[in-house]
Here is the input.
Amino acid sequence: MGVTVKGLSAAAAAEMIAPGLDTYAPTFFSPGEWAFVLAATDRLIPAEGRGPGALETNVPVFIDQQLASDLGSEIYLEGPFPANPPPTMGYQIPFTPQQIYRTAIKAVNAWCQEKHRDNFAVLDAPVQNDVLKKLQSGEVDFRAYGEDILKSKQFFGELLGHTKQGYLADPIYGGNKGMKAWIAIGFPGARASYVEWVTQHNVKYPLGPVSVSGQRG
Here is the structure.
């Protein structure tokens, strides 16, 4: 049972406090970049799924705030950078996350203009899905648009990873608005103690999630 204050659940109160996408002013993204991120995350976690979508949970806000912070600009960038490193080598791109988004979104929109005569954000959803699949498979060649280092599949991996993080992270980081994603999957969040539940096997946990900030769902 969720906690209520004057008839309003804490999850509902948290959603009221969180910024709405229609009024949020991006800190890092330009208007064109913001339109891309809104459209792309909406296709990666669409609202028509079994749980809330990326836009319902403020995933774009999470990405914008993370890129605007030190996490977007401060990262170890000492080479060498292997051209085709194995996945076990981790981050092997001589770009900060900020540079990845700025460079890639410009290239993706140029590719969409060439192939579909419009930017990604205004294409129909099925076409957007196809573009994202081509990014994932590396079929969109950024070299044709002046980028010789960053590959489309590298950008897709970064975008998908940040979308997942924004969907499932604690709301204090800007995403998971109203803890909707946690509620959908039954995740209890940052509760301090589970001592009374240690011996209760095969019993569904009945309490809603709790944010690091103390908000309760």
Remarks:
- The two ends are 9 Å apart (CA to CA).
- Confidence is low (pLDDT under 50) at residues 1-6.
- Residues 4-197 form one domain.
